Amino acid sequence: MHKYIALLRAINVGGHTVKMDQLKKLFEKMGFAKVETFIASGNVFFESKIIKAETIKQKIEIELHKALGYNVGAFIRTTEELRAIADYKPFKESDLSQTGNSLYIALLDRAPSKELQKNVMALSDKLREFHFNNKEMYWLCRGKFSDSGISGKLLEKTLEMETTIRNSKTIKKIVLKFCN
């Protein structure tokens, strides 16, 4: 069995409320094993015989749409991939440890083109800085998220693809719980 984490978009935001025990049951109904959820933002650990992440993604998105009645983006990472994402250091430690600064990680389905990366970089200023690595975008937010002027919708429009965003602290907690 292969170990995966599904980081879901549109769970418990925008009026779409899903209980984690319901989400767990939906994943089990899809045939996944050892299903566990982590905090109420749509983080699901599971095991599967399926090897291709794209096949898993499609299955989850189709079944969640049927069950919930709306589109839920699924961003699938192996436990090894998520550990590498958490360990990646895109910014100086002094920037990350400064009071009021936070690191967010946007998970993508594919690495964006250089042109799309350039478009995101154009959003950088003294309060926000971006870095790309593979299928992830790292965002150093200096100050409050709500004061950054950046929203998930703006990032998706600029990237021309869906994304889901997690605080790096959440990613690290998921890694500690499921990726050892």
Domain count: the total is: 2
Task: Report the C-alpha radius of gyration, rounded.
Answer: 16 Å
At the fold tier of CATH, the topology name of the largest domain is Alpha-Beta Plaits
Poorly predicted parts: none
- The separation of the N and C termini measures 15 Å
Individual helix count: 7
- What's the order of the H and E elements? EHEEHEHHEHEEHEH
CATH architecture verdict of the largest domain: 2-Layer Sandwich
Helix content, binned percent? 25-40%
Could you give the order of strands across the largest sheet?
Answer: 2-3-1-4
- Main β-sheet, in a few words? 4 strands, antiparallel
- Report the average pLDDT across residues: 94
What's the count of strands? 8
Provide a descriptive summary of the structure in words:
With 180 residues, the protein is α+β, with helices and mostly antiparallel strands. The protein folds into two domains: 2-82, 2-Layer Sandwich (Alpha-Beta Plaits), CATH 3.30.70; 84-178, 2-Layer Sandwich (Alpha-Beta Plaits), CATH 3.30.70. Helix content is 37%, strand content 27%. The chain has a four-stranded antiparallel beta sheet with strand order 2-3-1-4. The protein is globular and about 45 Å long.
